[in-house]
């Protein structure tokens, strides 16, 4: 079962007795936790009927909580964050030996036949073992929902919904800019994007629209933005500007190793864009194949034209060496400076 399917079910009043929410995307996990709680309890019931725990109680205690009848009627919601009940066993356990004792067997029976006055939410960003009997029982009698990191191509839909929640609109060039920022991030965090949009809403308080200049002001300190601007400066042989942008990131506390990693990713994308262009692909096809929004793909292709394949190969090898030397303590920020200077020649 996926995120959208759970949300649609809740809107129709189809609330499962037990949910397992797991995966790397903490933002979606929080959203679903809240959606289930809101679907079961009205605001005035939350203080009395919602129990949130930050770790698993003993199995006997959990069973007792599930079977406890709400004091004032209605329903109970038990929410356990960071559950370890479904972690892979250290010995790589399988179906054999899953039922270790009578207590665990009782839990299996309770999960298989939950009382109609209790809803259980288990959530974790850790890995879960889908072979475990508990996982299979929750999958059969409730819902198991894996929430993976969102892909760049899917952010537009999320952005539209988030702007509606904020009662804001975004200019078309601002939307492309925002999606461009997302597409150059090695890993997308919706929690981070959520916070950036909240800041944009506060920054534009009193206005209904968010402009590109608003976003540039708010997001200028993001390392990926600075790296992309630095590459742009390098591709135009603007050594002073490129070194200035690098210095600003180092002053803000970014480690040279992170800048090397981000720069290496951008150089690889340029190299790939150049090779695809030689094979006859247009900027839109290149963007799609590289998982970038169209205008970033076009810019990446334009930047790549200022470097020969040989230079891009040399830079890639130099960045790999700098990465190794920085990790082993044999280099400092000067290694990155030398690469930028070499790219500007």
UniProtKB/TrEMBL annotation:
Q: Name one GO cellular component term.
A: DNA polymerase III complex
Catalysed reaction(s) here are: DNA(n) + a 2'-deoxyribonucleoside 5'-triphosphate = DNA(n+1) + diphosphate
Q: Which residues cross the membrane?
A: none
Where in the numbering of this chain does the DNA polymerase III delta N-terminal domain appear? 19-146
Report the EC code(s) recorded for this entry: 2.7.7.7
Top EC class, one word: transferase
Q: Name one GO biological process term.
A: DNA-templated DNA replication
* InterPro entries tied to this protein: DNA_pol3_clamp-load_cplx_C, DNA_pol3_delta-like_C, DNA_pol3_delta_N, DNA_polIII_delta, P-loop_NTPase
> Could you confirm whether the keyword Nucleotidyltransferase appears in this record?
yes
Keywords per UniProt: DNA replication, DNA-directed DNA polymerase, Nucleotidyltransferase, Transferase
- Which Gene3D superfamilies does this one have? 1.10.8.60, 1.20.272.10, P-loop containing nucleotide triphosphate hydrolases
Record Pfam families = DNA_pol3_delta, DNA_pol3_delta_C
Q: Which residues form the DNA polymerase III delta subunit-like C-terminal domain?
A: 225-341
- Superkingdom assignment: Bacteria
> Listed GO molecular functions?
DNA binding; DNA-directed DNA polymerase activity
Give the record's family classification: Belongs to the DNA polymerase HolA subunit family.
Entry protein name:
DNA polymerase III subunit delta
Q: Could you tell me which species this protein originates from? A: Pelosinus fermentans JBW45
The organism's lineage is: Bacteria, Bacillati, Bacillota, Negativicutes, Selenomonadales
């Amino acid at each position: 079962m996926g995120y959208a399917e759970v949300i649609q079910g809740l809107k129709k009043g189809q609330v499962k007795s037990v949910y397992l929410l797991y995966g790397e995307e903490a933002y979606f996990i929080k959203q679903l936790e809240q959606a289930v709680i809101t679907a079961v309890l009205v605001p005035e019931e939350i203080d009395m009927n919602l129990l949130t725990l930050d770790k698993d109680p003993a199995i006997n205690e959990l069973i007792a909580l599930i079977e406890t009848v709400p004091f004032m009627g209605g329903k109970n919601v038990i929410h356990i964050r960071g559950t370890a009940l479904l972690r892979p066993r250290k010995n790589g356990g399988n179906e054999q030996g899953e039922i270790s004792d009578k207590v665990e067997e009782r839990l299996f029976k309770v999960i298989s036949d939950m009382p109609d006055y209790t809803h259980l939410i288990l959530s974790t960003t850790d890995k879960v073992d889908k072979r475990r009997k508990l996982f299979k029982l929750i999958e059969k009698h409730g819902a198991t929902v894996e929430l993976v990191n969102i892909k760049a191509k899917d952010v537009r839909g999320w952005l539209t919904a988030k702007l509606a929640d904020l009662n804001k609109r975004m200019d078309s060039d601002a939307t492309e800019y925002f999606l461009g920022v997302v597409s150059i991030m090695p890993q997308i965090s919706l929690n981070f994007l959520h916070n950036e949009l909240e800041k944009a809403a506060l920054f534009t308080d009193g206005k209904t629209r968010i402009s590109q200049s608003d976003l540039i002001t708010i997001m200028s300190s993001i390392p990926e933005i600075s790296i992309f601007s630095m590459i742009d400066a390098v591709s135009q042989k603007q050594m002073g500007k490129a070194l200035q942008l690098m210095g600003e990131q180092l002053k803000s506390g970014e480690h040279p190793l992170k800048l090397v990693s981000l720069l290496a990713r951008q150089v690889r994308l340029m190299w790939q864009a150049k090779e695809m262009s030689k094979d006859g692909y247009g900027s839109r096809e290149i963007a799609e194949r590289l998982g970038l929004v169209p205008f970033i793909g076009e810019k990446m292709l334009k930047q790549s034209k200022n470097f020969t394949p040989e230079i891009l190969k040399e830079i890639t090898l130099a960045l790999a060496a700098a990465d190794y030397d920085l990790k082993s303590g044999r280099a400092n920020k000067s290694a990155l400076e030398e690469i930028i200077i070499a790219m500007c020649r």
